[in-house]
Design brief:
heterodimer, B: alpha/beta, 11-stranded mixed sheet, two-stranded antiparallel sheet, 19% strand, elongated
């Protein structure tokens, strides 16, 4: 009798530990994947807001553009509600705590980039200022990565900025994405014994991008780089996110 | 002379004199303190503390004595920073307008490349263990001199003419040239202006006198120059029968539609660049043989305060070496002759600057007539 009780308790304990361990590992995985998805969306939204304001930013006749960090934030918050159905000003309780924390860090980093660039964009008499979605995204991602354990990077197969050169993992995925039909879906994968999440969200060329990245291929664009000869809908690159789970 | 000029000259004379007086007192005080030694300095400060009311005065006294402990070169080495003033008004290709890059906000240009050379040489001078980082202070041109006199800068580089009369405020020192091919040029939009000048040169029949030709040719026209720059000094000194417009910047002159500007005077190298790359509606004023019309020669120098002898020798020796090795000529060709995109160069080799130091909502300003001419 005693041995049966002992066996029952032991099995219960084993089952409980196994269940709880699955639970513990499953929750951070889902949390990380959701977080990566929202972070990629938020960076994409920031890039979109910069793109929408490009004519204003490059207007040489206007001094103070009024494109302040607050205006930027307002537009980002509105667009993020449209795209992700999440109000960054009142984050929903069901959102994972990691996402809550990091979305605000990325929003703050993005605002700081817009604050840093105020002097440049408010210069009257100067048209093109190179404050474009790509440069905004690079800086916002770098600021964000410097203040969290999560890394965000914009990457592409033929980077203009060598710091955006893909690592081996990113290169393989980019090559695969380039051969597939356009899709907004992120590719997520757990590597290093399931301790690191890698997520890649593809970016495709829109019509506005082609002024610099389109035809004629090889001819220098306004910023001095040779045009890539891209077509609308071609893969431009990806937002690459790495979230280490155990290090949290 | 114009009321505008009289008051500005008077102001600068008063400023110069007060700076000279302050420097003379400082020199005497330093000499006396050197004789006292470190214990003497402490006693001196204690005495000041007792006799002078208020901590501020003691603090000022300590600041006054501080240079005794470190000369300007060791101050730069220990700081790890070279504080460089640079004009916020763009003088392409010497200083391009600030742009945003993947690395953040950057400025680039020939002057910026020279600053990198100076910083690299200082890194070697300081032992090479800690790189000397150039910290750029983008300031309005007119404020560079004030910033320098107030001790906020180690030096400034902004295509400053070192040999044009009136261009050197007292108390500042100008290096040997880093750019020899300067000179004041002119750009125009209306071909009639070029015809007037051409007619004047033809009258001279093989015995050219540029000043006479330009004085007669521009008579009655509206001529713009940037306030405080050498073109302004040249116009004030040499043209009597023009309507002189003083502009806050070169872009301000280009943007002005009322009154219509007939001629803009500025540095020839800058005008050569902007007529080719920035404002194709404007054209360089040329001689009858098609060569650019240069009104006077000018060379550009690095500027520091008068007292910094070690830094001055360091700069002169460095510039001499850069000239000797052909590096200065290479820089000139890179920025003035090669085909390039400034934005791309800003990304790869531009320098950051202190955002907190730049004027808020900088714009190129405006133009106004010089009064009393």
């Amino acid at each position: 009798m005693k041995s049966r009780v002992f066996l029952f308790i032991s099995l219960s304990l084993v089952f409980f530990l196994a269940w709880s361990s699955i639970g513990w590992s499953q929750a951070p995985r889902e949390e990380a994947e959701t977080t990566a998805q929202h972070l990629a969306t938020l960076l994409t939204v920031g890039r979109l807001i910069v793109e929408r304001n490009q004519t204003l930013i490059n207007d040489p006749r206007k001094g103070d553009k009024g494109f302040t960090p607050e205006v930027f934030e307002h537009e980002v918050v509105d667009e993020f509600i449209r795209q992700a159905h999440i109000d960054l000003k009142h984050l929903p309780s069901h959102l994972p705590s990691l996402a809550k924390e990091l979305l605000l860090v990325l929003l703050q980093s993005s605002k700081e980039v817009v604050a840093d660039v105020q002097f440049v964009i408010n210069q009257r008499g100067i048209g093109y200022k190179n404050f474009i979605p790509a440069t905004f995204g690079s800086q916002a991602a770098r600021k964000f990565s410097n203040r969290s354990q999560v890394t965000i990077k914009q990457t592409t197969l033929n980077p203009r900025n060598l710091k955006n050169t893909p690592d081996a993992y990113e290169e393989n995925l980019l090559k695969r994405l380039a051969t597939q039909p356009a899709s907004a879906t992120s590719i997520t994968e757990w590597i290093d014994n399931d301790t690191t999440l890698r997520a890649m969200t593809p970016i495709y060329y829109s019509q506005d991008c082609l002024a610099c990245h389109g035809d004629p291929k090889g001819i220098l664009d306004i910023s001095g780089y040779p045009r890539e000869g891209a077509q609308e809908g071609d893969l431009a690159g990806a937002i690459s996110i790495q979230i280490p789970v155990k290090s949290r | 002379m114009a009321l505008y000029n009289r008051s500005s000259i008077l102001n600068s004379m008063i400023l110069d004199r007060s700076i000279m007086n302050a420097r003379s007192v400082t020199r005497k005080l330093r000499y006396g303190l050197k004789k006292l030694g470190s214990q003497g300095i402490i006693l001196f400060l204690v005495a000041i503390g007792i006799f002078l009311q208020g901590c501020g005065l003691v603090f000022d006294a300590v600041e006054l004595v501080q240079p005794l402990a470190r000369d300007e070169m060791s101050a730069i080495c220990s700081r790890g920073q070279l504080r460089v003033g640079i004009s916020v008004e763009p003088f392409r290709p010497f200083v391009f307008p600030a742009v945003f890059t993947d690395e953040g906000v950057r400025v680039t240009g020939l002057d910026v490349e020279l600053i990198r050379e100076v910083a690299d040489a200082l890194t070697t001078y300081c032992g090479g263990q800690k790189p000397i980082a150039p910290t750029l202070h983008l300031t309005r041109f007119r404020d560079l001199f004030i910033e320098m006199n107030e001790g906020h800068l180690d030096l400034f580089v902004s295509s400053i003419g070192g040999n044009v009369p009136g261009a050197r405020p007292a108390g500042l020192w100008y290096s040997i040239p880093y750019f020899h091919n300067g000179g004041i040029g002119a750009m125009i939009q209306q071909p009639e202006v070029a015809e007037r000048i051409r007619a004047q040169f033809q009258k001279q029949s093989g015995n050219p006198d540029t000043l006479a030709a330009i004085q007669a040719g521009l008579s009655g026209l509206t001529v713009a120059a940037q306030r405080g720059r050498t073109s302004h000094l040249y116009a004030e000194a040499n043209f009597k029968n023009i309507r002189l417009l003083i502009c806050d910047s070169l872009p301000a002159a280009v943007e002005t539609k009322d009154p219509r500007i007939d001629v803009i005077l500025s540095k020839h190298s800058i005008l050569d660049y902007v007529t080719k790359h920035v404002w194709p509606d404007w054209h360089l004023l040329t001689r009858n043989d098609g060569t650019p019309l240069i009104l006077t020669q000018e060379y550009y120098s690095i500027v520091t305060v008068e007292e910094h002898r070690r830094l001055q020798w360091f700069l002169n020796n460095l510039l001499y070496r850069l000239a000797e090795s052909g590096r200065l000529e290479q820089m000139r060709r890179r920025w003035l002759e090669e085909d390039y995109a400034p934005t791309r160069r800003a990304t790869t080799e531009g320098l950051p600057f202190e955002i907190s130091k730049v004027p808020e909502h900088y714009d190129q300003g405006q133009c106004r007539f010089a009064t009393g001419r």
